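To make this tangible, this section ends with a sequence with its structure tokens:
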Amino acid sequence: MIKIICGPKGAGKTKQIIQLANTNAAAQKGLSVFVTDTDRYVHDVKRPVRFINVTEYNVAGEDALCGFVKGIIAGNYDIEYVYLDGIARIAGKELKDLAATFYMLDKIANQSGLVLTITCSCEQSQLPDFIAKYC
């Protein structure tokens, strides 16, 4: 399942996804992974949530991002939640050009039975249809 947190830049999407990750960590049965492209929030994410900065692994582009998420899941079948902060920044594309990425991430989430929460810097009314259907 994919869930979307959207809003314009500076609206508090990252704080919201961090709060969600920290709240879910207390009640979850499986593991959580927080994926972003900066170390800025490493101390805000609680210890039970695995924090990963993709720049440390040279993840750039949508294919690399999807492969990275697959690798995370393949490395540990107990993952219940994946939080992806700033998908467009990590993929290096605009949201409107990420249809294939969302298709693949949806497929990964459904096959693995995990909840994938993604932040998108865009007003909900301006989201492309392939993303808006997850709101």
